[in-house]
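User: Could you go from structure to sequence for me? I need the amino acid at each position, not a summary. Structure tokens:
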């Protein structure tokens, strides 16, 4: 079973630099690598990773994507003098060569391929390559935008050829359009390429018409190129997360990749002089976490851009920490995507509607005329002087506020007498129990006769111990197998609401009789997913009807991304309770996927309550909660039924006004 996170780094890739004066290229400095690595060491992340040595890529590997002529040109730079290097650099756009460029580019690519090998031979689960030169701008016949060889594109070709992969997802979260990758896979349906990029209606580098949302691939590759252009600077956490929920993730889950490659550029993070965006480092934890639920968790992140050394380093650390399975820091800031972001999201969804089943029901509303658009709520002004020092001060205080606490325990379980689940590492079966008096004192909301059953009392007693562990963050998450999950849930909700927890999110799956009568007067948000539901509904007591036919591929990912996660990210809970009852209409795998994604919220603080008659479900969920390697196989999926969509749309219309993350269009 694959486990562990690999790290590829070698300081030799710092041995080239810009030799002459060129303001456009001066930001791509060797210190980008050392400062990232140093920060990884500061956070003790290096020693938790499996170090992989770099190697030189071979000519054969380089020419998987590049022409022999271009390879010869790069080879020839090894022996050039400064004048010749400058001349050859000027033949291309925004790129510079040094005597060591060829060697470093071979190590950068070779390191990337080492990581791909380690992941696809199951030596490790995932990993990151901290390499330079970057790759995503380079093309068959030319270097471009600081890039010499296209590391990620070659990695995809390599994986296709060596491991016979048929579906690879490339996620390019660098702030620039990886046009090099787009050109290489334009006609290739086996590689789904997603890139968001600063575009500003074609006034930002590389100023290409083909970076716009309506360029979607050609021939057999039509629909497999996804461009999300940002037409304003200042895009932040809410915009990035919304782009994932409403564009990338539904398509990626439908695509069902066997490997995820990330063109991990951090010039899309706050403080970057190129990107001028506002996403904070934690945002990359969340992006990473969501992608880890694809391809059985086989994720390979490869450094591209990132020019604010501080922001770059913190964001790299967030990515690696998440790959290692640590709880995610909470996202800060208003969770409202801006108008311009919603316009872009709407446009790219409309452009892809004919090619993706999950967009089939996308009601295409006419895009706003960009010239008539109102003021963006983002205040960043690109004309102003860009003061990197100011962002250093921001990041200093921002990073201090982030809690990196890892609880001593990952998962606590309450199991019925004689129940034997195969428990993965990191799971503790709770044996302690609260006193009868204590339980009764905490259960004023429950009818007395419920407490008369000895097994119920035993379960509540242990659950009370676990609840307190969760509240004190002694354990990250927990699972309770209960004789009556609705009684347990009611008890738990009361207990959590009496604690300092401010925002509780409850998700109920199936019928939970007593809970429906338990009135929620807006103290918490409660989402019910069932086959039938009562008529009353508010912004905080939400009923969604969703049914899956058993023994078939599921379409539950659809409602997860268009509704459940946007709502949950909008709310930013600090505690989550998930309860399953009888007559549930969604399967074990779907609940696993949901729990897996929700672990990105509330610092992973989740209490799961299921009926004790479902040990098989318990087995699956306990693995998922304890982050057992190799548990994240959720595909393939299928298109949602018209009936499900219609039911959902009706509900979404009601709550969209309150929950802004649900929006996927600007109208
Ligand atoms: C890898 C990367 C950016 C080139 C910008 C040129 N390249 N203006 O971020
Ligand atoms: Zn970039």
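Assistant: Here is the amino acid at each position, in order:
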């Amino acid at each position: 079973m694959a486990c562990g996170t690999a790290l590829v780094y070698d300081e030799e890739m710092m041995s080239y630099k810009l030799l002459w004066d060129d303001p456009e290229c001066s930001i791509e400095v060797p210190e980008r690598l050392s400062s990232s690595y140093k920060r990884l060491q500061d956070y003790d992340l290096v020693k938790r990773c499996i170090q992989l040595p770099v190697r030189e890529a071979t000519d054969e590997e380089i020419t998987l994507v590049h022409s022999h002529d271009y390879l010869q040109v790069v080879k020839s730079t090894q022996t050039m003098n400064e004048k010749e290097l400058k001349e050859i650099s000027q033949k291309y756009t925004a790129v510079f060569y040094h005597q060591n460029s060829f060697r470093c580019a071979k190590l950068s690519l070779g390191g990337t391929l080492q990581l791909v090998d380690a992941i696809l031979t199951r030596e490790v689960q995932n990993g990151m390559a901290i390499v330079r030169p970057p790759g995503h701008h380079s093309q068959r016949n030319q270097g471009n935008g600081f890039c010499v060889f296209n590391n990620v594109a070659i990695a995809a070709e390599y994986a296709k050829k060596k491991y016979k992969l048929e579906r690879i997802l490339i996620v390019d979260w660098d702030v620039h359009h990886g046009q090099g990758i787009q050109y290489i896979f334009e006609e290739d349906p086996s590689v789904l390429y997603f890139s968001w990029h600063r575009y500003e209606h074609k006034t930002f580098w590389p100023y290409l018409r083909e970076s716009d949302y309506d360029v979607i691939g050609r021939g057999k590759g039509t629909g497999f190129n996804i461009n999300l252009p940002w037409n304003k600077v200042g895009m932040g956490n809410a915009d990035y997360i919304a782009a994932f929920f409403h564009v990338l993730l539904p398509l990626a889950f439908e695509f069902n990749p066997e490997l995820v490659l990330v063109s991990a550029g951090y010039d899309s993070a706050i403080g970057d002089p190129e990107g001028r965006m506002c996403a904070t480092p934690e945002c990359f934890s969340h992006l990473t976490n969501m992608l880890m639920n694809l391809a059985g968790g086989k994720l390979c992140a490869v450094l591209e851009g990132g020019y604010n050394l501080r922001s770059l380093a913190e964001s790299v650390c967030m990515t690696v920490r998440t790959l290692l399975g640590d709880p995610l820091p909470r996202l800060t800031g208003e969770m409202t995507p801006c108008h311009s972001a919603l316009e872009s999201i709407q446009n790219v969804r409309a452009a892809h509607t004919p090619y993706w089943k999950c967009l089939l029901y996308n009601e295409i509303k006419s895009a706003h005329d960009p010239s008539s658009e109102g003021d963006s709520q983002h205040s960043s002004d690109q004309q102003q002087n860009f003061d990197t020092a100011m962002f250093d001060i921001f990041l200093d205080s921002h990073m201090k506020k982030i809690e990196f606490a890892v609880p001593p325990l990952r998962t606590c379980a309450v199991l019925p007498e004689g129940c034997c689940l195969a428990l993965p590492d990191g799971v503790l079966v709770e044996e302690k129990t609260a006193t009868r008096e204590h339980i009764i004192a905490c259960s004023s909301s429950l009818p007395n006769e419920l407490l008369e059953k000895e097994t119920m009392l035993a379960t509540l007693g242990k659950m009370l111990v676990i609840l307190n562990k969760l509240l004190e963050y002694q354990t990250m998450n927990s699972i309770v197998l209960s004789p009556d999950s609705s009684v347990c849930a009611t008890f738990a909700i009361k207990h959590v609401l009496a604690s300092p927890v401010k925002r509780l999110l409850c998700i109920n799956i199936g019928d939970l009789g007593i809970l429906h009568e338990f009135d929620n007067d807006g103290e918490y948000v409660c989402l019910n997913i069932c086959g039938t539901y009562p008529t009353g509904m508010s912004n905080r007591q939400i009923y969604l009807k969703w049914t899956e036919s058993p023994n078939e591929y599921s379409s539950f990912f659809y409602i997860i991304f268009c509704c459940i996660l946007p709502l949950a990210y909008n709310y930013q809970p600090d505690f989550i309770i998930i309860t399953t009852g009888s007559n549930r209409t969604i399967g074990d795998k779907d609940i696993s996927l949901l729990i897996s994604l929700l672990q990105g919220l509330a610092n992973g603080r989740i209490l799961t309550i299921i009926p004790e008659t479902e040990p098989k479900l318990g087995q699956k969920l306990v693995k998922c909660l304890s982050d057992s390697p190799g548990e994240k196989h959720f595909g393939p999926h299928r298109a949602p039924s018209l009936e499900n969509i219609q039911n959902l749309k009706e509900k979404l219309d009601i709550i969209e006004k309150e929950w802004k993350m649900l929006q996927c269009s600007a109208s």
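One structural detail worth keeping in mind: The pocket of zinc ion (ligand 2) is lined by residues 174-176, 265, 267, 304-305 (CB under 6 Å).
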